[in-house]
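Why do we bother with holo predictions? Because pocket geometry can differ from the apo form. Keep that in mind while you read this record for nicotinamide-adenine-dinucleotide.
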Amino acid sequence: MGFFDAPALNHHEQVVFAQDDETGLKAIIAIHNTSLGPALGGCRVWNYDDEAAALRDVLRLSEGMTYKSALAGLNLGGGKSVIIGRVRDIGNEAAFRAFGRLVDSLGGRYVAAEDVNTTPQMMEWVHEETDYVAGLSPDLGGSGDPSPFTAYGTYVGIKAAANKTWGSDSLEGKTIGVQGLGHVGIYLVEHLSKAGAKVIVTDIKEDRVKDMLKIKNVTAVAPEEIYDVPMDVFAPCALGSSVNDETIDRLKCQIIAGAANNVLSDYDKHGKILLDRGVLYAPDYAINSGGVINVYGEFEGYNEKRSYNRVNHIYNVLQEIFQRSQDENIPTMDAADILAEERIRKLGRLKQMHRSGKRLFSKI
Ligand code: NAD
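The structure, written out:
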């Protein structure tokens, strides 16, 4: 089999390997699909075990971004980049400016943003060399921290799931467990408390839990107990894989809807189990798209109010996913993938026709 047919490449449009001897930069940029627009995706710094692991990671993540942006209704494609190494060795101005030049050389096909182990400062260095970077701080004309938008989108998504399950958006009196009180979790707890929900929080960092207990209707449990407490909604907002072989039988909830990425440790297996048990799962990349929706605003002149309005659209997207899942008796994650692929196909075709000069509709 030839290199281009390798299944791992998943039909990526372009994969760029780059190194800069002067700064020690070793980076891979993966552009999965630009049918809907420029490939936006974070730049991650990670000390991978080997280069094959770095390649696998960047390919998987860039494909994920294609689906996420398409489903969120954005005119963006999917991409991602990884810089191989330790932050303490590579997290400096020279390396990130070299990376910025690399991004610039792609002429806007890839747009970088912050991700795991990259900081606003690093993105400012990238910005010294290219305009193709998003999510900068507001004083540089950017949209700043995406977390409040991710949290708001998650809140809206929980309401959509409530409506599907109980026939009403109201969260008044519902018991909702929030796992993880980081950038997203703290804002989510505030929204839920204001909506009259009984919020049970947990975090491995005790000071974060203490802060949250000052908020109305909030109680706490130890990190391991969150899986055993009866609740209406479980909202994972910590790390991935919180729903796994060990925890899935312990959970006593009707809805799983949180901001964390990769919530189900095995999508096919756990997605099917939840479907069979009638537990409604809000697919992670649909419910946590508030951040990317906010960043997208930078492409048209950033406006916070418009971003919040757009994030409300997550409600409709989830309704569509839940309906499709019910109609076809398929896990919600599969329904989300199908809807994303349909949008890419339909709109991507429109764009192609537009580019080739063909008229979409003949003039009457
Ligand atoms: P964060 O690192 O700020 O917060 C994570 C929190 O989870 C921390 O307080 C940590 O102590 C806690 N935690 C870790 N393990 C735990 C455990 N076993 N039990 C309880 N708490 C635990 O991260 P964040 O930015 O708030 O993001 C949360 C999740 O949402 C991540 O999975 C992230 O990938 C995803 N996400 C975030 C955004 C965003 O805008 N920040 C966007 C999309 C997806």
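Confidence is low (pLDDT under 50) at residues 355-364.
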